[in-house]
């Protein structure tokens, strides 16, 4: 009988991995389960927001921080989380990430107040920052190159299925019970995480550390401080019309920008930076990440505030609203491979540009017609157009990022791009709350109730979301323009 402490095994072609061939399937299953937890959390929580507000008597700013606390620590620590696998061993760190994610999920489920839910979500974000990069890293390190592509393909396909099924399951749970049933969506992680941990601890050996370089904890702390101050500037104490006071925005916004400058200065001087700034000097890298930020800012804002609008404002059931997430999976999963091949021939610019234009048109449609309050005839088709546009974008955008750097920088480039997309979602949710509140008040909404409250009324709530949708349409159009003008056209040039 093979021991779980085996450290390496011969692979076809003379390659070696730390994981024996018979045990690799356990790695793959654990990675799929971990990814499922991350994907389900990202989509179901936005659907559960109205129930959380009712159960915890939370304001819009409170519920923004339920999201922001998670995205803040995830964004700030994800690069450190990826590097930790190289420093301490991928399998070991992956176990830590899953364990922390599960413990934090239980704390979220048991939180008696929104004030206790917010730090639990922040802890969960740290777990996700370790778990998310570890999912793909452990597959890459467990399988030899000749088998790695197939394993990653299985992982991606299974992740796409869980992305589609997760929100529907969560919506069904929320629709079946009372306001307190939002707690169950966090407890779903308990059996999933337990199985993943058992597989990794009992069936998978530990791998050796790749190096002993120190982790960039100072960079992570400065990034957390900067992003936290900027988010607090936009979601702090409410002033007139439910929008944060101008003095508050200026004070904490300036402090956040100062911390951001300190982060950039540190990263430029650090011996082992979490975000090597030299990569931004490479042609195409800065442009691809600018497109990532604007496009994922728009996506994050719509996916957070649209479910709130439909559930609280229109009174639509949670299980019906979860259908909004299906187009992303139904288009991105089958389109990624053929669109990726096409990008090799025509370049990423035309595909990203055209896809971003489709997304912009979809958001403009939502903004223009949200007052019709027609889910089946208007909202869902608009989201389908958005899903098609993202299907054109996702694979070429990854190719644009990875193709703009040298091979030895591919891991850092991928991590930076992932972190930027997460940061975009954080800033979007923080910034767009004020936009929605102002438009809500302008449409005659009761500011003592506020946007997104079940008693706020359908028309003012729709007006609040329309303002968000116009902003996201403009940002997606900007993404399209950046892609067409700054990214590569045609096949890559030979070295």
UniProtKB/TrEMBL annotation:
Transmembrane segments: 26-49, 69-86, 93-112, 118-139, 151-175, 181-202, 214-234, 246-266, 286-307, 319-339, 351-371, 383-402, 423-443, 463-484
Coiled coil: none
Localization (cell): Membrane
InterPro entries: MFS, MFS_dom, MFS_trans_sf
UniProt membrane topology term: Multi-pass membrane protein
Keywords: Membrane, Transmembrane, Transmembrane helix
Major facilitator superfamily (MFS) profile domain sequence ranges: 27-491
Main location: membrane
PROSITE patterns with a match to the protein in the record: MFS
GO cellular component: membrane
CDD domains associated with the record: MFS_MMR_MDR_like (cd17321)
GO molecular function, one term: transmembrane transporter activity
Name assigned to this protein: MFS transporter
């Amino acid at each position: 009988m093979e021991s779980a402490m085996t450290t390496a095994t011969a692979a076809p072609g003379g390659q070696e991995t730390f994981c024996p061939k018979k045990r690799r399937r356990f790695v793959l299953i654990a990675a799929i389960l971990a990814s499922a937890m991350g994907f389900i959390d990202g989509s179901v929580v936005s659907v559960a927001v109205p129930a959380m507000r009712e159960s915890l008597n939370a304001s819009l700013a409170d519920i923004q921080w339920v999201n922001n606390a998670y995205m803040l620590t995830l964004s700030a620590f994800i690069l450190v989380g990826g590097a930790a696998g190289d420093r301490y061993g991928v399998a070991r760190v992956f176990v830590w990430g899953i364990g922390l994610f599960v413990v934090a999920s239980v704390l979220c489920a048991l939180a008696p107040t929104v004030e206790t839910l917010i730090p639990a979500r922040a802890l969960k974000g740290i777990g996700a920052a370790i778990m998310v990069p570890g999912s793909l890293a452990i597959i890459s390190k467990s399988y030899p190159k000749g088998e790695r592509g197939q394993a990653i393909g299985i992982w991606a396909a299974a992740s796409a299925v869980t992305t589609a099924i997760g929100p529907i399951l969560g919506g069904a749970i929320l629709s079946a019970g009372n306001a307190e049933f939002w707690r169950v969506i966090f407890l779903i992680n308990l059996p999933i995480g337990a199985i993943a941990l058992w597989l990794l601890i009992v069936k998978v050996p530990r791998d050796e550390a790749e190096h002993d370089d120190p982790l960039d904890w100072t960079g992570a702390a400065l990034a957390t401080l900067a992003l936290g101050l900027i988010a607090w500037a936009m979601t702090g104490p409410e002033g007139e019309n439910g929008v944060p006071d101008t003095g508050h925005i200026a004070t904490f916004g300036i402090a956040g920008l100062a911390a951001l400058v300190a982060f950039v200065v540190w990263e430029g001087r650090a011996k082992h930076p979490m975000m090597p700034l030299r990569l931004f000097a490479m042609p195409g890298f800065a442009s691809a990440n600018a497109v990532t930020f604007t496009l994922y800012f728009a996506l994050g804002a719509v996916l957070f505030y649209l479910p709130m609008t439909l559930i609280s404002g229109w009174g639509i059931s949670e299980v019906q609203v979860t259908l909004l997430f299906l187009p992303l999976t139904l288009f991105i999963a089958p389109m990624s491979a053929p669109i990726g091949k096409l990008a090799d021939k025509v370049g990423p610019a035309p595909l990203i540009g055209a896809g971003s234009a489709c997304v912009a048109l979809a958001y403009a449609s939502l903004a223009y017609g949200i007052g019709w309050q027609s889910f089946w005839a208007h909202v869902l088709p608009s989201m389908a157009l958005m899903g098609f546009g993202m299907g054109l974008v996702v694979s070429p955008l990854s190719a644009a990022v990875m193709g703009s750097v040298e091979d030895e920088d591919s891991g850092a480039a991928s991590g930076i791009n992932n972190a930027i997309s997460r940061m975009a979602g954080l800033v979007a949710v923080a910034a767009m709350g004020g936009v929605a509140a102002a438009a809500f008040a302008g449409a005659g909404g009761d500011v003592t109730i506020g946007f997104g409250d079940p008693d706020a009324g359908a028309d003012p709530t729709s007006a609040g979301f329309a303002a968000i949708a116009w902003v996201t349409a403009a940002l997606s159009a900007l993404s399209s323009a950046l892609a067409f003008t700054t990214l590569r056209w045609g096949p890559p040039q030979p070295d």
